[in-house]
Design a protein that fits this description.
Cyclophilin; 34% strand; rotamase; eight-stranded antiparallel β-barrel; isomerase; 179 residues; EC 5.2.1.8; 10 strands; two-stranded antiparallel sheet; Cyclophilin-type_PPIase; E_coli_cyclophilin_A-like; 2 helices; mainly beta
Length: 179
């Protein structure tokens, strides 16, 4: 009799959107601080009724704290960037968005539409640090691709312009974390 090894399953997240569901496996063993941060936002219903606010075809779709009126929600403190974890920004992976500062990620995340090698960790310099991958879409890439194909526009917001905004709101209705 052959015994199967017990397979440890990764925690998952179900993003329920008005365009369909996206199921993501998280990698706490590779990005423990990032997964803990993401879970904190989920547990506080932070992402509910926010939108995918940035769509760049053949690159990424981004969400994580923008309301329908394009106002930014108040976030927690930035976290340490774990992009040096060996994971690459391949198609279907989820990663943290950040500013030009290495350790500036808060709530915003993106799903890669292709292997975005230029976003991968190369070295510990400002330009080479990369963007932390912390999970991967395991169901719902058709939904991701449907979102990615939406028409976008540049929207004037207060005294500045916001580009790559989908003309149709892609609303995150609920996010469910499962151990």
């Amino acid at each position: 009799m052959i015994q199967k090894k017990n397979k440890v399953e990764n925690p998952t997240v179900l993003l329920k959107t008005n365009m369909g569901n996206i199921k993501i496996a998280l990698y706490p063993e590779k990005a423990p601080k990032t997964v803990k941060n993401f879970k904190k936002y989920i547990n506080n219903d932070f992402y509910d009724n926010t939108i995918f606010h940035r769509i760049i075809p053949n690159f990424v779709i981004q969400a994580g704290g923008i309301k329908k009126n394009l106002d930014q929600k108040q976030t927690y403190k930035p976290i340490e960037n774990e992009a040096d974890n060996g994971l690459e920004n391949k198609r279907g992976t989820i990663a943290m968005a950040r500013t030009d500062k290495i350790d500036s990620a808060t709530s915003h995340f993106f799903i890669n539409l292709k292997h975005n090698k230029r976003l991968d960790h190369k070295n510990k310099t400002k330009s080479g640090y990369g963007y932390c991958v912390f999970g991967k879409v395991i169901e719902g890439m058709k939904v991701v691709d449907k979102i990615a194909n939406l028409e976008t526009e540049t929207v004037k917001k207060d005294n500045y312009k916001v580009s790559d905004v989908p003309k149709k709101n892609v609303i995150i209705k609920d996010v469910i974390y499962k151990e």
